[in-house]
Design brief:
Helix content is 25%, strand content 36%. With 185 residues, the protein is an alpha+beta fold. It has one domain: Nuclear Transport Factor 2, Chain: A (Roll). Strand 2 and strand 3 (90-97) form a beta hairpin.
């Protein structure tokens, strides 16, 4: 009986170890963590640097979905001198307020999808900056993207040091996930 239990335990441990095996770093010294269990699906799918945005077509308010205009006014107010564009899967509004560049995304039916706020390190909340700097103290934060969706909010931190460029995803609770890391050439 003991031998059977030990054999089952050994098989279980082998299966678990194989399933969760650690991959060593390759010769290019690029680290990529893909465990995103602390982030909701909607945040994982936000299309950062969305290709459809680069081909956006400027539009006037008369051709916009009225639901999007009403939602935008309720969330952000009026008189922001926002610029609206059509993208492949809806509309986006761009505007600046107090040193923050904002992009608000709506689907084709005028439903709010998410808001992307871009700013400098100096505007990053102190507690989030402290968490990042406690781990990556030699890195300079070059840009912050704050992403708000219906389910969650995360910070995308762009940073670099002399040898690396890195993009981190930081939850509002301080959980950090390395999205991308590149070695400078």
């Amino acid at each position: 009986m003991k031998k059977s239990l030990l054999a089952l335990a050994a098989i279980y441990i082998s299966v678990v170890a194989f399933t969760y095996r650690a991959n060593g770093q390759g010769s290019n010294n690029v680290i990529a963590f893909t465990d995103t269990k602390t982030f909701t699906k909607s945040i994982q799918l936000v299309p950062f640097f969305d290709d459809s945005f680069t081909s956006a077509t400027a539009i006037d308010l008369s051709s916009l979905n009225k639901k999007a205009i009403k939602d935008f006014a309720s969330k952000f107010g009026t008189g922001l001198n926002e610029k609206w564009s059509r993208i492949s899967d809806g509309f986006v509004s761009n505007f600046q307020v107090d040193g923050f560049t904002n992009r608000v995304y709506y689907d084709t039916k005028g439903r709010w999808q998410y808001t992307l706020k871009t700013y400098a390190e100096s505007k990053l909340p102190r507690e989030i900056r402290s968490i990042v700097k406690s781990i990556y103290y030699d890195y300079t934060i070059t840009m912050v993207e704050e992403v708000h969706s219906a389910e969650n909010m995360v910070y995308i931190i762009h940073q670099e040091d002399q040898k690396h460029i890195m993009k981190l995803r930081v939850s509002k609770d301080g959980d950090i996930d390395v999205m991308e890391e590149f070695v400078k050439g």
